[in-house]
Amino acid sequence: MSGTELKPPLDGIRVIDLTRVLSGPFCSMLLGDMGAEVIKIESPGGDPVRGQGHHKNGFSWYFAGFNRNKKSVVLDLYSDEGRTDLARLLETADVLVENFRPGVLGRMGFPPERLEEINPRLVVASVNGFGSTGPYTDRPAFDFIAQAMSGFMSVNGPEGEPPLRAAQPVTDLVAGLYTAFGIVSALHGRNRDGVGQAVETSMVNGVLSMMAYLASEHFVTGENPQRTGNDHPLVAPYGLYNTADGQIAISPSNDQVLGRLLAEIGLPDLLSDPRFDSNDKRFARRDELHGILDAALASDTRENWILRLNRAGVPTGKIQTLKEVFADPQIQAQEMAIDVPHGDERGTVRMLGFPVKLSRTPCAARLPAPRLGEHTEEVLAALREGQVTGGR
Amino acid sequence: MSGTELKPPLDGIRVIDLTRVLSGPFCSMLLGDMGAEVIKIESPGGDPVRGQGHHKNGFSWYFAGFNRNKKSVVLDLYSDEGRTDLARLLETADVLVENFRPGVLGRMGFPPERLEEINPRLVVASVNGFGSTGPYTDRPAFDFIAQAMSGFMSVNGPEGEPPLRAAQPVTDLVAGLYTAFGIVSALHGRNRDGVGQAVETSMVNGVLSMMAYLASEHFVTGENPQRTGNDHPLVAPYGLYNTADGQIAISPSNDQVLGRLLAEIGLPDLLSDPRFDSNDKRFARRDELHGILDAALASDTRENWILRLNRAGVPTGKIQTLKEVFADPQIQAQEMAIDVPHGDERGTVRMLGFPVKLSRTPCAARLPAPRLGEHTEEVLAALREGQVTGGR
Lengths: 392, 392
Fold this sequence. Notes:
Two copies of one chain form a homodimer. Helices cover 38% and strands 15% of the residues of chain A. Chain A is α/β, with parallel strands linked by helices. The first copy, chain A, folds into two domains: 9-211 and 334-384, Rossmann fold; 239-325, formyl-coa transferase, domain 3 (2-Layer Sandwich), CATH 3.30.1540. In chain A, β9 (239-243) and β10 form a beta hairpin. At the A-B interface, β3, α2, α6, α7 and α8 of A face β3, α2, α6, α7 and α8 of B.
């Protein structure tokens, strides 16, 4: 079968998207990027992100970057008519995504029993702050708070300095990505068994699950991991080093790679020096070792060392600003910035590309971000005429 | 239909897992947690992580925490016999996951054409450092380097201080999670169209896609986002404040929430004070404002403020160490640490729980992490007898 005949993986899946701001819209965008029909239900005031971030031609590029591949339908869910329209849309849908606080959707007239009654095949996905059971379930959520409560901040920061948040809204995005994974998994099960189910991810749980070996080391030793800045907590050499014209990041992944590093920088005998012949000794003399490496690396430029060391199989790179990232030929080859024409006065908007590459049905910006209510008539008219496309 | 009769979403999916260390094993664990049969192919020396991290009863808890819900089959892929066994396993499989450098799998005898010949329904997933096209495709990958190259470090760190890596291996884990999402999406498409395809995520692309509004602001303004530590780059108040007995994190999400914060801490008139009646003014006088909030918050304890402010709808929390995280009743209610008996001298291993909650078919540790080669005979014997279970 020719690849050109194939439809995107989630083609035919209809997602009713009640989410706003960040975690939920990121999740539904991921589904839209994979080909799902995403119907973004907005209140008459619209997603608050429409008014956030810098605007160009009257349009928020922040909103554009999180809402491609979606249709916008305005419903007033405080009115009977709005709720009736939502119920009818859910009959035609495969997935509902919401990021209200737990319980809010039920109080709006859509508790789990009613959703099951409306459509037993529906996958009902929730992204929230802390999960829907436990003492904090009613608390308002925000990325900064989730970073603090989850332990993320406790290990982020320079050695000897206070805990630090990451500037990226990591807890929103990780939760959105987990939810998208959970939704597609639940769809896979539904395709086999015929019944939908609820899928939930919280911002705290999502980012906590990324503590990886920091968590397993904590469980086995009982100790809290420490903040170590750009140094590795256990391994030397590892970190940022000075070349003739700037810093490079080097992280030899094992002793064999370390040997290749030292050979390439002209210190082939260092590992047989009794001061440095084990990781424990190197770690204890980390500052001294750092000075020796800096002195050796002064003999060539940053770009040359990056080429030479990578060729020798040593993971090496440099710290890049976003300007440098998007000028980087690798990032360009990977099309990680894309230009999406919006077909009107909003013009062409640059946004992040697709991190998942599919060989036969690549992700694409099939639709630009919608104007508020752009698809209300089209979607509701189809409902009235019974032209439902989803619900399979 | 009763939920108890249902099988996990990915039940019946067979994953052949050639990955080692972190990004790939995290991806395949996520698939296993959703019910897939994951067959971890290890070289006779085993996944290097078996020897990493603190051991208890001779067993690495780091390995355990990334390899639950997997079977271990030892194959020597440098031998003809090993490669033949792999080819026969792939005939029975739905998914292949690998995290070699691009091209390595082909040089091992399994280029894309051969994989398609062996099993046209196979979803072939790759996790790598930089992607399989572009000038850096052959470079060795490591989390620290991907954090540096992707722009992540450029925005992580205190204001006025150098760029900083995060201690969590975020680039490995985000790439693994994206790959799992891509795999299940591709399976969904395959169930409809009958053909598999290649799925790829790189560590740099994955974490770059998490730059979110930092990227959209960069695209629209052309400026690089700055490091701002625990302060918000645009909004005040926001950050860490002192109470009678410790710090709290507060992040009012909009002016309405800010009003509730100020009312609760006894400063209801602050927003009508001409020094503070707009965000711009508050931001310009951020230090002065910080002092006023600290003084007001000195009247009660940290725990009380967290309860009071959350009740008032203001996102508020505290920075927790991992010890505090796992003692937190919310984290306990969410079962984010689980104890998995390993059925032998390795005893019971504590590990992270499941961030995606499914209502009908909850994720579970159906299998503990395998001993090296524990399932070699079972899996290869079934192959010989033609008892293949996958490949649907």
